[in-house]
């Protein structure tokens, strides 16, 4: 009894006096990281049999590279291309600090059909490296689009934001033919976001202007000057069927879709000076939105549909204004520079992108945070026009001048990447618009 | 009270007795005046009976008688004068006596008054005395009580002092014991404190180093809700090699979760103290991650 007590006392004494070498859990709090590009290795896909026209892994690499969010690692050291995760030398990729590894394979199934498989791998999850994998069978002509979709999936897995590689853009291509008389041909073109697969949905001898994607990405609204008068049309991209929306005397311009796709905001001069109206596409009922003695144009419905941006010279110079559609209250948004126009919304409705004339009277693309009013100039070419923001809000496509003709450029909203889309056809390119 | 009443009765009796005495005296003085008047009127009656003798003789006698008469007359006159004188004397006497009586009376009254006063005074005195006695008694009692109290207090004080003394002794003993204990433990605790301080600063240093190492590798996913948080458990081998990273609590955002796990893996080996005892504190890390901002 006494012994037990003694032992207990001794125990108490020891626990009190000595700091025991406990294996306590140490608490840490991490709140700050870096804004670096994610290092990724896209190992060329294993292609068995006849090589298809599209290099899937190369398209994926280009997409990821063009997004500005990735640092593409050199894969030339890989001698034996793996088609399965077990063939990947993860130790090597860890040693070069790669975050993710992409492998895949393209197998011909005959009859111009291919089975494409890809793996997104985490080299640090030993024994459990697969983050995502997919096998898709497509026709050869669809390999390129499939590659864009794989790039989108990888992009989303790593950044948490949907990719825009498989989206479509539309623009107006102007081709000049003949020396005397000069004849211009106007085409309304729909292409992949990287500029590939251009397809004209309308060809006209007369100018085509202001193409605008419907929110569902299936239709394009635009202004056509066929028969020498301005009219607003809507074309179904898949079927080619088009509908006339307005054909008032003089100006019928700058169509913009409401977010539900049921109405168009249009600029009409039927009541005098150009003003903004809203037309219900089902009933054709027209309602005025602005009623000033100034020129109001380039409407843009906000993502929540409650407000509308437009350009007006009511303050003396063209500036961007915001109208609250419920209260009717109008406020000026841009104050930086003597010319701001062609505003469009970021998908979160928190910032806008627009054409901005800088101090040197050159035209650049700028972005403004609506809450802080801070303006970020994204481009410095001086001949930039018609900005349009990507559906994920990460990129802006715009028209610029290069070698005396209009080209398409893309810049990321964080300013990290800027690139020119490859020229797919002769001619000058205008008024790009980014769709789904 | 009783005593006072008795006193009052006594004084009343005394007063009555005194008045009685005064009345008797007054009566005596009345008797005194009546005989003085009778004496004066009875003298001439006895003188008329001794007269009548011959002619010559008678003459002589007559002469003699005449002389006698004259003598008698003289005598009578003298007597009358004497009587007058007496009467006057008596009157004077009476006046004197009256005066004396008055004096006496006043004296007696004075006396009575005096006696009454005296009685009152005496009574008063008695009362005072009694009062005094009473006061004295009370005083005495009070004194006694006080004395008793003092005695008691003194006793108590003594007891308390004794108690306090014991207590103080005990306390002193305890303090001494404690001091001894402290002295015994002092070296150890001082050693511990120094070691702890060293440990704490060493730990703080390595905590910061670890956070920086992971942060440099953590490519924060954009557009991530800043209110999200992820909790990781990290096991380290000596030298800082990350043995295992496990998700204790997901933020609900798989991209955020994986970005941090990858960052921890890439940061391996983490900077850890070489001292094995200090390193023991770093064997298991609990990392809470909040995507608040970018490293400066």
Can you offer a commentary on this structure?
The complex is a heterodimer of chains A (436) and B (296). Helix content of chain A is 12%, strand content 45%. By secondary structure, chain A is mostly beta strands. Chain A has two domains: 38-159, Rossmann fold, CATH 3.40.50.10070; 168-434, Neuraminidase, CATH 2.120.10.30. In chain A, strands 2, 3, 4, 5, 6 and 7 form a six-stranded mixed sheet that branches. Chain A has a four-stranded antiparallel sheet with strand order 10-9-8-31, with no helix packed on it. Chain A is globular. Chain B has helices at residues 2-47, 56-217, 254-267, 276-279, and strands at 230-236, 242-249, 284-294. In chain B, strands 2-1-3 form a three-stranded antiparallel sheet, with helices on one face. The model of chain B is unreliable at 32-46 (pLDDT under 50). The chains are: A mainly beta (436), B mainly alpha (296). Chain A binds chain B through residues 17-19, 21-38, 69, 94, 97, 99, 122, 124-125, 131, 157-161, 414, and chain B through 185, 188-189, 192, 195-196, 203, 207, 210-211, 214-224, 233, 253, 255-256, 258-263, 265-266, 277, 280-296. Strand 1 (25-33) of chain A pairs parallel with strand 3 (284-294) of chain B.
Q: Mean pLDDT across all residues of chain A, rounded?
A: 92
Percent strand of chain B equals 5-15%
Based on the structure given, which CATH architecture of the largest domain in chain A is correct?
A: 6 Propeller
Unreliable stretches of chain A, pLDDT < 50, 5 or more residues? none
Helix vs. strand class of chain A: mainly beta
Summed up, the helix count of chain B is 4
Task: Using the alpha-carbon principal axes, give the shape of chain B.
Answer: rod-shaped
């Amino acid at each position: 009894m006494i012994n037990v007590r003694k032992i207990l006392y001794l125990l108490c004494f020891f626990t009190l006096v000595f700091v025991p070498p406990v294996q306590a859990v140490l608490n840490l709090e991490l709140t700050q990281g870096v804004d670096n590009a994610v290092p990724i290795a896209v190992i060329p896909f294993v292609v068995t049999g006849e090589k298809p026209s599209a290099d899937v892994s190369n398209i994926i690499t280009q997409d990821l590279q063009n997004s500005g969010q990735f640092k593409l690692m050199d894969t030339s050291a890989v001698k034996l291309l793996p088609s399965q995760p077990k063939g990947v030398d993860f130790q090597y990729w860890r040693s070069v600090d790669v975050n993710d590894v992409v492998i895949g394979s393209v197998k011909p199934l005959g009859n111009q059909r291919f089975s494409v498989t890809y793996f997104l791998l985490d080299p640090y999850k030993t024994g459990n490296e697969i983050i995502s994998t997919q096998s898709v069978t497509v026709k050869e002509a669809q390999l390129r689009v499939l590659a864009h979709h794989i790039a989108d999936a990888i992009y989303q897995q790593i950044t948490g934001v949907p990719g825009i590689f498989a989206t479509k853009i539309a623009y107006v291509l102007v081709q000049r033919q003949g020396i005397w008389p000069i004849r211009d041909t106007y085409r309304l073109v729909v292409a992949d976001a990287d500029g590939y697969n251009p397809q004209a949905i309308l060809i006209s001898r007369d100018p085509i202007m202001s193409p605008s994607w419907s929110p569902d990405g299936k239709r394009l609204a635009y202004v056509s000057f066929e028969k020498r008068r301005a009219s607003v049309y809507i074309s179904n991209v898949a079927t080619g069927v088009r509908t006339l929306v307005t054909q008032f005397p003089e100006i019928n311009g700058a169509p913009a879709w409401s977010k539900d796709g049921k109405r168009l905001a249009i600029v009409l001069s039927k009541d005098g000076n150009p003003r903004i109206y809203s037309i219900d596409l089902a009933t054709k009922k027209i309602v005025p939105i602005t009623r000033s003695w100034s020129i109001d144009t380039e409407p843009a419905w906000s993502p929540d549909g409650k407000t509308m941006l437009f350009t007006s010279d009511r303050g003396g110079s063209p500036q961007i204004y915001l109208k609250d559609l419920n209260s009717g209250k109008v406020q000026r948004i841009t104050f930086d520079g003597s010319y701001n126009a062609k505003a469009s919304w970021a998908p979160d409705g928190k910032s806008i992108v627009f054409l901005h004339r800088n101090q040197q009277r050159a035209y650049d693309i700028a972005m403004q945070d609506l809450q802080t009013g801070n303006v970020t100039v994204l481009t410095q070419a001086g001949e930039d026009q018609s900005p349009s923001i990507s559906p994920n809000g990460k990129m802006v496509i715009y028209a610029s001048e290069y070698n005396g003709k209009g080209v398409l450029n893309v810049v990321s909203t964080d300013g990290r990447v800027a690139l020119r889309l490859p020229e797919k056809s002769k001619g000058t390119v205008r008024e790009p618009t980014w769709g789904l | 009270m009783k005593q006072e009443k008795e006193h009052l009765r006594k004084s009343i009796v005394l007063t009555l007795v005194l008045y009685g005495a005064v009345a008797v005296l007054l009566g005596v003085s009345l008797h005194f005046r009546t005989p003085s008047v009778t004496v004066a009127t009875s003298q001439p009656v006895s003188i008329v009976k001794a007269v009548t003798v011959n002619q010559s003789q008678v003459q002589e006698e007559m002469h003699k008688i005449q002389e006698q008469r004259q003598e008698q007359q003289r005598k009578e006159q003298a007597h009358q004068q004497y009587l007058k004188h007496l009467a006057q004397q008596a009157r004077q006497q009476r006046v004197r006596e009256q005066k004396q009586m008055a004096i006496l009376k006043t004296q007696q009254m004075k006396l009575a008054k005096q006696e009454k006063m005296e009685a009152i005074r005496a009574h008063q005195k008695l009362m005072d005395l009694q009062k005094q006695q009473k006061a004295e008694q009370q005083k005495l009692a009070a004194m006694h009580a006080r004395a008793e109290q003092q005695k008691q207090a003194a006793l108590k004080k003594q007891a308390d002092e004794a108690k306090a003394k014991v207590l103080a002794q005990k306390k002193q003993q305890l303090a001494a014991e404690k001091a001894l204990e402290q002295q015994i433990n002092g070296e150890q605790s001082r050693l511990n404190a120094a070691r702890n301080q060293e440990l704490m600063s060493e730990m703080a240093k390595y905590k910061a180093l670890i956070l920086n190492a992971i942060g440099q590798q953590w490519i924060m996913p954009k557009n991530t809700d800043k209110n999200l948080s992820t909790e990781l458990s990290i096991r380290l081998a000596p030298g800082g090699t990350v043995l295992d990273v496990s998700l204790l609590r997901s933020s609900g955002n798989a991209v955020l979760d994986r970005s941090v796990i990858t960052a921890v893996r890439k940061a391996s080996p983490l900077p850890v103290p070489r001292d094995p005892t200090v390193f023991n504190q770093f064997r298991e890390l609990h990392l809470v991650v909040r995507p608040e901002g970018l490293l400066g």
